[in-house]
Amino acid sequence: MGQDQAITGSDPRLTAGEAALARRELRRHKLIALLLVVPLLLFLLFAFVAPIATMLYRGFNNPAVAQLIPGTLQRLVPWDGTGIPDRAVLTRMALDLRRLAKIRRSGKLAEELNRHLPGASSVVKSTARKLRRKSETELEQKGADLLLAANSLWSKPAIWQAVKKAGQVYTDTYYLTAMDLERTFAGDIQTRQSGQIYVKLYTKTLRMALIITLMCLLLGYPLAYFLANAPPKTANMLMIFVLLPFWTSLLVRTTAWIALLQTNGVINSFLTAASIVTDPLEMLYTEFSTVVAMTHILLPFMILPLYSVMKGIDPSYMRAAMSMGARPLSAFVSVYLPNTMPGLSAGALLVFIISVGYYITPALVGGTKGQMISNIIAFHMQQSNNWGLAAALGTLLLVLILTLYWLYDRFVGAANIKLG
Amino acid sequence: MKMTRLVTGVVLGSMLAAGAVAEELTVVSFGGAYGAAQKKHMLDPYTAKTGNKLLFEDYSGGIAEIKAQVEAGNIQWDVVDIEVIDLERACSEGLLEEIPTSILAPGDDGTPAEQDFIPEALANECGVGNIVWTIVYAYNEKTIGATRPTTIGDFFDTAKIPGKRAMRKRPQVNLEWALIADGVAPDKVYEVLATEAGQKRAFAKLDTIKKDIVWFDSWSQVPQLLNDGGAILGQSANGRIFNAIKEDGKPFKMVWDAHIYDLDVWSVVKGTRKMDLAFDFIRFATGTKPLSGMPDVAYGPTRKSSMALVDPKVVPDLPTSHLKEGIKANGIFWADYGESLGEKFNEWLLQ
Amino acid sequence: MQRFPDYYGFWHRLGHYALRYTAYGVLGFLVLPILVIVPLSFNVEPFFSFTRGMLMLDPEAYSLRWYRAIVDNKNWILAIKNSFFIGIFATILATVLGTLAAVGLASPRMPFKRLIMALLLSPMIVPLIIIAAGMFFFYTKFNLAGTYLGLIIAHAALGVPFVIITVTATLSGFDRSLYHAGLSMGASPLRTFRDVVVPLIRPGVISGAMFAFVTSFDEVVLVLFLAGPGQRTIPRQMFSGLREQINPTILAVATLLILVSILFLVSLELLRRRSQRLRGIEE
Fold first, then answer.
1. Given CA atoms B221, B227, B232, B236 in this order, what sign does their dihedral have?
2. CATH number, domain C77-278, options 3.40.50.20, 3.90.470.20, 1.10.3720.10, 3.40.50.2000
3. Residues A78, A52 share a domain
4. Using beta carbons and an 8 Å cutoff, which residues of B are at the interface with C?
């Protein structure tokens, strides 16, 4: 920056012409630098940023119901949310259900309504099944009665409130659900009545990530210290033991933990053979196995930055402190530890960030108890097909990660990430 | 310039590679012993006969993956082997193509297809029956201990039979069993399960063994779990256990009480670009000869003409020989309640 | 026997040994689980555990059957081909784009440097499940889901940060006056770039490319969401294998992958030494 100002500013040593030339030269350099970066920026914009933006948008855009039953929704507008809507609405709904059943789209409507009113799905589907057999003219005349007769739920305000809510194209429902909240029909926000899952899961994910980070710190710090103070030859050789896992496929490492921890696995066979336990311990598919396997996988991310910082610390500091009579522990706390803080915070933040969003290892070794937030996002993407909720949960996770990344960038500097 | 050439190379190369596999038909089924039997009797002979390449993919059942593909407009599968318990729902939600019966081949003895198939095999317009199979539970004689289970009540009785129970991670079959074990008459199960009180009752019964359940996703996990002691009792497709006994000599025993039998059908994913090829494959795979190979894994063929070719020694192991002890899975019930009970089931799991 | 300075007391000596054995313990924790896979992959039984025969070193208890199983299985062969195909093209794409951008970013005249840097590195930080979910929706719109091209693009995006980091690292020691010297001696910017900059950043480019390749080669979440059955890769095949039928074929594949990672480790170390020599850093 200083240099730039020197050139662009009115340096008395330059003539006006020379200054203009220098400015042009500077602009050219800027342009070249920019041109070199632009292809990658465009590429990432398409391949990476736009997909994530689409996902954020999906979290509050839900046009499905509005497209399925536009007629019913339009007639439902004046309804105030109490009692049963008037017969025109009911008749229209009966006709819509029949039409949807014919084109095999009633399942979609059922699914969407079920998200606002658990249990509605079976009512919508069985009603559509019944109405499918009626003729259009019959439904135009007695559609309302047939609808009410098909299931008692149609005479309750709850289902119509659900229809009206599900019909909103832009909705905060998913984001509220992701925070275990819901909006009452009157518009007030309250905690979700039908089960609170996600806040608990976020807390659990953060707790597990914290445990994993602490474990990595606890194991990584002494090892990094040992390696940093060992003779260079030994250190280089032992470093292989850190780098080999780092370079080994994470599926290989997860496989290894399955082999070790399963009921009939290596550890249990050893324990039973040595008569330490009589019945095999249940270790795989628990929170324990997730934490152990992830600590193993993420440990190198803690050791490497710690090691590179510790190598830069002059060992004479500690020696000086101790030769002056400081006890080893207090010398360590007051002299050494503060000096390792950059590496420590870099490693800890990196491990924490990675483990908060981890998917593969919990999916394979976590069973039902060791699942983290990523696994629930995958569940809603692949199993329940509740893509709006998956998007909302993902967005919250993204906000969390970006906050951590911002902290990391502020305190450590994203450009200072070291590899290997 | 070098770089332009490289980039062009990347684009062209990947387009070529993508084009090279475009004509393959993707057939999806359940893997394991069943998949192996299908490969032997249906897929390999089809490739040998027509030269059409097939990609054979495993899945663990359910409609979620088909649904994701259809709703996203990203069709990756062409032909899918699906359980009737899921077929009704998939069909009524518009996830499958209709298969006209006119594409089906007559039996090898000349019987027209409509008469050769058992009626249930063609009951739904989106599927063509493939096998009759059933869900039982089984145990390993080596690990079971002194008391042996004989009824579905024993499956839920951890005092009588202590140890882990392996169950498939979905509400289907588990809720039916819970109600029968709780004393509901087998022919009233679906009626009770349609009520709020009945659902509560089923989950309450499952609660009694919840901490002893090992959940699995894929049928192929069960023989493994029974073998290595990961579970004492395991819910399983009868063919998997049959195969482990016959092929690997495992000391497994099946309990037929309250088994829930069903059909598996071939279906075609809505919006596939290879519909003609898919129909051609189904026509071949549901022919008399290929179907008669299914009893290899103790699944009954859906054609009368195939039944005539079955080894009589296998017949006692086929689900059709045990119909009195079991109930028929109700596809229509699960079409209506699959969604809401699925949601309740998942919330129950997380509690 | 270790010699200690005089001011070391008993507790200090004890601490010293405690540290040493803790360090060895942690090293064991890091490496042993990986090494345990290797003998297990030669198990004659279809299990994930040591049999009595294996412990007695009975040759009958060992076999190559799971390695043969890889070769005999069409799906594994397809997966191996796909992993290399996708990995190589994703690496080329990421390396070309990433190197150019890193050179641009190294210029002191680059505007919004910090912001752009943070953006370019973010694929490394954003959880894969979020990227996968986003790509699933977005790539489907462009008919890229279930194609090789889609996976190559997706994996290239993941590999870019590594190329940026390694190339930036080699450029950080780069004396810009060399570049200006080249220019002032009348060479064109392109020629200067080729003759002066490229040789210096080459080690960074190569190690960045290796990171990008390994990232793609090891990636499974995006593959699970984006790939069709035709694009199954090694990790994808392992993932479904671990979920559905645990079988030692996976251990055999894992052993081969460990060999691959040792190969990478060695080449990277050689590169690092070369780079340091080039930049005049003495060990």
1. positive
2. 1.10.3720.10
3. no
4. 3, 6-7, 10-11, 13-15, 17-18, 21, 24, 26, 28, 31-32, 55, 57-58, 60, 72-74, 76-77, 217-218, 220-221, 224, 228
> In this complex, do A195 and B347 lie within 8 Å of one another by their Cβ atoms?
yes
- Residues A80, A51 share a domain: no
* Residue among A260, A216, A270 nearest C33 (CA): A260
Instruction: Note the ipTM here.
Output: 0.89
**Domain extent for A99:** 64-171
Best CA proximity match to A249, nearest among C205, C255, C226: C255
Nearest to B64 among A126, A285, A382 (CB): A382
Of the candidates A305, A294, A257, the residue with the CA atom closest to the CA atom of residue A371 = A294
Would you state the pLDDT for residue A273?
84
Q: Do A229 and A164 belong to one domain?
A: no
Q: Is residue A106 part of a domain?
A: yes
At residue C264, the pLDDT reads 87
Dump the DSSP string for A75-137.
HHTT--SSSPPPHHHHHHHHHHHHHHHHTT-HHHHHHHHHHHSTTHHHHHHHHHHHHTTS-HH
Of C96, C145, C246, the CB nearest to B74: C145
A300/A390 same-domain check:
yes
Are residue A152 and residue A272 in the same domain, yes or no? no
Same domain, A383 and A273: yes
Q: Is A377 on the interface with C (CB under 8 A)?
A: yes
Do residue A208 and residue A316 come from a single domain? Answer: yes
Average pLDDT over all residues of chain C: 87
How far apart, in whole angstroms, are the C-alpha atoms of residue C169 and residue B268?
53
Position with higher pLDDT, B119 vs C187: B119
Residue A358 lies in a domain: yes
- For residue B64, give the 3-state DSSP assignment: helix
Let me know if residue A176 belongs to a domain: no
Flag whether residue C93 sits within 8 Å of chain B, measured between CB atoms: yes
For chain A, the domain total comes to 3
Length of chain C: 283
- Kindly list the residues from chain B whose CB atom is less than 8 angstroms away from the CB atom of residue C229: 26, 28, 55, 57, 76-77
Query: What residues of chain A score a pLDDT lower than 50?
Result: 1-8, 420
Do A262 and A302 share a domain, yes or no?
A: yes
- pLDDT tens digit string along A268-314? 888 888 888 887 888 888 899 999 999 999 999 999 999 999 998 88
Rg of chain B taking only CA atoms, in angstroms: 22
CA A125/CA B337 separation, integer angstroms: 8
Chain C positions touching B274 (Cβ under 8 A) are: none
Q: Is A380 on the interface with C (CB under 8 A)?
A: no
Residues of A in contact with C201 (CB under 8 A): none
Q: From A171, A206, A224, give the residue that closes a domain.
A: A171
Nearest to B344 by CA among B223, B204, B227: B204
Q: Which structural domains are found in chain B, ordered by start?
A: 25-131+263-326 (3.40.190.10), 134-262+330-350 (3.40.190.10)
Can you tell me whether residue C84 is helix, strand or coil? helix
